[in-house]
Amino acid sequence: MSEPVLSIRDLHVSFPTATVVQGVSFDVMPGEIVGVVGESGSGKSMTARSVLRLLPKSARLGGSIRFRGQEVLDMSPADIRAMRGALVSMVFQDPMTSFNPVLRIGDQIAEAMTLHGQKDRKTLSDRVASLLASVGIGNPKARARAYPHEFSGGMRQRALTAMAVANGPALLIADEPTTALDVTVQDQILQLMRDLNATSGTAILLITHNIAVVASLCRRLIVMYAGRVVEDGPTDEVLTAPRHPYTWSLLQSVPRLDRATGRLVAIKGQPPDPAEPLAGCKFHPRCPWVEERCTRDEPPLEDGVRCWVRPAL
Fold first, then answer.
1. What pTM does this model have?
2. Counting runs of H as helices and runs of E as strands, what totals does the chain give?
3. For residue range 13-29, what is the model confidence (pLDDT) as tens digits?
4. Domain coordinates of the chain in residue numbers?
5. Which of 196-205, 240-249, 255-264, 293-302 shows the lowest per-residue confidence on average (mean pLDDT)?
6. Cα 272 from Cα 86, distance rounded (Å)
7. Model confidence band, residue 303 (pLDDT cutoffs 50, 70, 90)
8. The three-state (H, E, C) secondary structure of 59-118, written as one string
9. β partners of residue 12
10. Which fold has domain 6-295?
11. Which of 35, 117, 119, 130 could pair with 218 in a Cys bridge, judged by C-beta atoms 3.0 to 4.6 Å apart?
């Protein structure tokens, strides 16, 4: 059996006032597409940014992050720079601030390839145009000469995706890659990821709020809540037979086309404040099946689910 391309064990991310990721563990195998879902503030993006060590200086990391067997937390700054954009790439969530406003779009995409060995100008120009065309940007040679302010938000998001896949990375981390895109363009971005996965064997870690995107693209699904993994399993199983009350609650808030659902059910309450420690299961104040033990002891992640009760959902 092949080794994981990414292996995270007992990851902790803390700041002076709070711990925002606590005890996260999972693997991503070569060629696997893994989705990560959860409410805002659940630790999804912090976990993803930890892989590339793109966290504020005040962040403290504990545990282990291994990429192709090498410990990322022990890498030198030079090793991290060599890995970023070549072996591991990331599509960031905010396309409005991810480009340098005074450099042309094409030059910024070309720079991502130049930094990792591609020098020939003609090859770079052709590759940039091909990448922009692959994400649905028309007249790509001309658009490559445009500045970021001349692109709409959706076009910037597509250009970010083009930059991220430019070097054919072994692992692509996509943080809300379809945000602000219409349905047609969303499909183009997702198809690009499918093609990259199929042709290059690139593993993908997809962070999203969109359950439909997860269902169409991901083979495995990780559900996070309050900085913890609460459920991990094959996508079909998690979506059709959720085992954690939080996963079930998330799915109740999603419109369904295959059956009449009546009014959508919102999850009561708010996620816990990471700066204020909460005893027991972190979901217990919002859980319909809470028991006394849930308020006292935090359950471990066993058999892909973190729950004492495990109700028949």
1. 0.91
2. 10, 10
3. 999 999 999 999 999 99
4. 6-295
5. 255-264
6. 37
7. very high
8. CEEEEEEEECCEEHHHCCHHHHHHHECCCEEEECCCCCCCCCCCCCHHHHHHHHHHCCCC
9. 22, 62
10. Rossmann fold (3.40.50)
11. 35
